[in-house]
Structures are given as C-alpha cells and as structure tokens.
Amino acid sequence: PAGVVADRVSAQRVVAVGLLVFAAVYAGLGATDNHLLSWLLMGGYGAYTGLTDGVGKAWISGLLPPSSQGTGQGIFQGVLGAGVLVAGVWAGLCWGGDGQLPLVLAGSVAAVVGLALLLVPRSAFAAR
User: Fold this and answer.
1) Using an 8 Å Cβ cutoff, are 21 and 106 in contact?
2) Longest dimension (CA), the chain
3) Closest among 11, 15, 1 to 115, alpha carbons compared
4) What's this model's pTM, rounded to 2 decimal places?
5) In sequence order, what DSSP letters do the residues of 4-17 get, joined into one string?
6) CB neighbour class for 65 (10 Å; exposed up to 12, middle 13-18, buried from 19)
7) Is 125 exposed, middle or buried (0-12, 13-18, 19+ CB in 10 A)?
8) Coil, strand or helix: which one is 37?
9) Could you tell me if 91 and 75 are in contact, meaning their C-beta atoms sit under 8 angstroms apart?
10) Would you give per-residue pLDDT tens digits along the chain (128 residues)?
C-alpha cells in the first residue's frame, strides 16, 4: 500500500511520513510506562517500517542512473545497516534505568528529518 501511495505523491513524502510515524512511536514509548499503550505503539512501529523500507529502496533506485543501480543500492544498504548498528549500540549504552533518553532523542531526530523531507522540494532529489 505504501508503494501505491508513493507512486501518487512521491517516495520522498511517504518516507517523510514514515519518519514522522517513527518519531511519534518513539516519543510515545519514551513517555509511557503503560504496557498496553506500549504494545499499541509497536503497531505504529510496523507502520513506520511499511512506509519506509521498500519505498526508501525504490526512492534511491529512482535517483540513480541505470548503470549505477547495484553500486548505489549496495552503498545505501551498507550505510543504512551501519547506521542501525551504531544506533543500536548507542541506545544500549544510553539506556540507563528507564530507557527514555534514546527513545526521545531518536524520535526527535526522526521528526526533524521527516519534517525536512516534507519541506524540501522534490526537485532537490530529482535524478540528474
């Protein structure tokens, strides 16, 4: 479903909305100690993944010339994987007693990036 929406409004906007969903989920997880709400928020985490995973790959593919698809996707996936690893280690080290700091900080960063992607014109990312 996210891919269909991306075809209509742009992958950039769908990824931006996905990051805003991530921000809301992480802020919510960082702010609550209610177990039921935490489980509900995890459903939102699934929505974030659905909005960003495949659409992000398609967006990158649309930015790359045909002769660089393999290299570009490899670099994208490598950087993404390294970022997830570093973020996971950082979050583990910062977890502390209640785990709020990494959740709130990650949510805040995602909100800024998501809003920036909504505000930056699509032409800034057009294939050249």
Assistant:
1) no
2) 50
3) 15
4) 0.85
5) HHHHHH-HHHHHHH
6) exposed
7) middle
8) helix
9) no
10) 999 999 999 999 999 999 999 999 999 998 888 999 999 999 999 999 999 999 999 999 999 999 999 999 999 999 999 999 998 898 888 887 777 888 888 899 999 999 999 998 877 776 55
pLDDT, position 82: 97
Compute how many other C-beta atoms are within 10 angstroms of the C-beta atom of residue 76: 17
Give the total residue count for the chain.
128
44, 48, 21, 19: which is closest to 112 by C-alpha?
19
Provide the token pair at 105.
């900080």
Angstrom CA distances, 60 to 11, 57, 74, 91, 125, stand at 9, 5, 11, 27, 10
Residue with tokens 């502390």: 96
Q: Token pair 């800024």 is at which residue?
A: 112
Q: Which residue has the tokens 């994208």?
A: 76
- Closest listed residue to residue 12, CA positions, set 52, 49, 66: 52
